[in-house]
Amino acid sequence: MGKRLENIKKGVDLSKKYRVEEAVAIIKKNASAKFDETVEVHMKLGIDVKHSDQQVRSTVNLPHGTGKTKKVSVIAKGEKLKEAEAAGADRVGGAELIDTIFKGEIDFDVLVITPDMMKDAAKLGKVLGPRGLMPNPKSGTVTFDLEKTVKELKAGRIEFKADPQGIVHVPAGKASFPEKNLADNVQSVIDAVVKVKPSSSKGVYVQSVYLSSTMGPGIQVELAAKA
């Protein structure tokens, strides 16, 4: 991998900032691993994560999906179970599903729950919390609007959250995607992160944006407008 990266770097000016479309073209050209590499957006934000009012966490709908269909489970009751099932949820249930998950049967990528079931599902925090799978209102996974939520998750809605260093890492698709589709996804991620800038954040909000594939170098992206 060392020689491979060195060869890639010889043909790319890593000190230069590229437009999204240019960066995507470079990433695709150099994604030569034996598997379909994931393309990720990495954004360094000028926030102080120690302050609760400067947390950055939200969701983004990727117009061309992630390249992977998510398995979605829903905890609800009554008519909401039918709504979730009709929307395409892989598994639906009430108290019995809560017990199944609590015992360790976690066969989903995303769990959605209606607000009226949160009290019963509170115990799942011990099991799902460490895995980052516990439903949360900020990520849109605690809701009564199951039809919209399940369909969006299936179509490519993903959650993003700034890490302790104030960096957001978001998968934006696969290297095999057409350039335009990948560029659309990347731009959607950038726009979504810029949109949720905390009002208390001072100075330059987006300090840098890099695009990279699983096995490739980071390509710096030039923002279209100052964030």
Write up this protein.
- The structure is a single chain.
- This protein is an alpha/beta fold.
- It folds into 2 domains: 13-66 and 157-220, Ribosomal protein L1/L10, rRNA-binding domain (Ribulose 1,5 Bisphosphate Carboxylase/Oxygenase), CATH 3.30.190.20; 72-154, 3-Layer(aba) Sandwich (Rossmann fold).
- It has 8 helices and 9 strands.
- It has helices spanning 2-10, 20-30, 79-87, 95-102, 118-121, 125-128, 146-155, 179-195, and strands at residues 38-45, 57-61, 72-75, 91-93, 110-113, 157-161, 167-174, 206-213, 219-220.
- The protein has a 4-stranded antiparallel β-sheet, covered by helices on one side. Strands 4-3-5 form a 3-stranded parallel β-sheet, sandwiched between helices. Strands 2-6 form a two-stranded antiparallel ribbon.
- α2 (20-30) crosses α8 (179-195) and α3 packs parallel to α7.
- The model has no long low-confidence stretch (mean pLDDT 91).
